[in-house]
Specification:
The protein contains 10 helices and 5 strands; from the N terminus they run ααααβββαβααβααα. With about 280 residues, it is α/β, with parallel strands linked by helices. It has a 5-stranded mixed beta sheet, with helices on both faces. The N and C termini lie far apart (about 75 Å).
């Protein structure tokens, strides 16, 4: 007869059943709204994972249905603006990162980037450094100027927090800030392996740019910063309290960066304990 299988099993709902469904849908809508307060760009897959973490079992199909019913869609992406100035006379370094590289530990690879925040009187610039293993932000800098000091501030914070062993790969674009004498001297002092993206190839530093998109669409565009003081007081909160501690990432098994690093430390502790027992 050309009818779908679901049509055969379809049963009309009674008025009480229809009302009960409306109540359940409203409850799920409120749950989705509560997640979107902190994570406005979460799609149905991450909504499903986040709700499960919070103790609510709602399947992806139902989430998509309710999103369509109430118009609960993720914040849309805006046009991206280039901030890299690679036209300078400083030495540029080859790309050491390989997509096939196995990254299994913290402080094995750091990636860095710079973006901007528009305020009423102009722009504020933000430099960040991420640990590529856990996607955790380990250092950042905020300045009214896009210069070497901005990048150095972020690097110094990362080094102070992590104190990496020699050999950690530091990857960036070929911007003048990352090629400057001050920045290279600090990397050399701590015995980093210096890696840079190829000219005009944004995919070489996709990890850092992915974080910048998250920062833009989940915080900057929604907060409507007006002054430099707004940025300094509120942006670090998003980085530490929301991104590092609460935001889940599909690339690390739908865990937060903090949870993923805890797993790594726990694994190391267990391996060390087993070694001690064997010896």
């Amino acid at each position: 007869m050309g009818l779908a299988r679901s049509t055969y099993y379809y049963r009309l709902r009674t008025e009480s059943q229809a009302k009960a469904r409306e109540v359940r849908d409203a409850e799920v809508k409120n749950l989705i709204d509560s997640v979107h307060i902190d994570f406005p760009v979460y799609g149905y897959r991450k909504l499903h994972r986040e709700l499960k973490r919070r103790g609510h079992l709602v399947n992806e199909k139902k989430i998509r249905r309710i999103q369509g019913k109430f118009g609960l869609f993720a914040t849309q992406v805006r046009k991206w603006t280039k901030t890299t100035d690679s036209k300078h006379g400083f030495k540029k370094y080859p790309k050491l990162l390989d997509p096939a590289m196995l990254i299994t530990d913290m402080n094995q690879v750091w990636v860095s980037d710079i973006t901007y925040v528009r305020i009423q009187t102009g722009f504020i610039f933000v430099a960040v450094i991420l640990d590529l293993c856990s996607r955790r932000v380990v250092g950042w800098g905020i300045s009214k100027r896009i210069n070497a000091e901005l990048a150095v501030e972020a690097l110094k914070m990362a080094i102070e927090q992590r104190k990496p062993d020699p050999g950690c790969i530091h990857h960036s674009d070929q911007g003048v800030q990352y090629c400057s004498e001050e920045y290279i001297e600090l990397l050399t002092e701590w015995e980093f392996q210096i890696s840079m993206s190829r000219k005009g190839n944004p995919y070489d530093n996709a990890w850092a740019e992915s974080f910048m998109r998250i920062l833009k669409y989940e915080e900057i565009y929604l907060s409507e910063y007006e002054t430099y003081e707004d940025v300094v007081s509120r942006l670090p909160r998003f980085i530490e309290e929301i991104y590092n501690r609460k935001r889940i990432h599909s690339s690390i098994g739908y865990l937060t960066p903090e949870e993923f690093e805890w797993q790594i430390r726990n694994r190391k502790t267990q391996e060390t304990g087993q070694t001690l027992l064997i010896n």
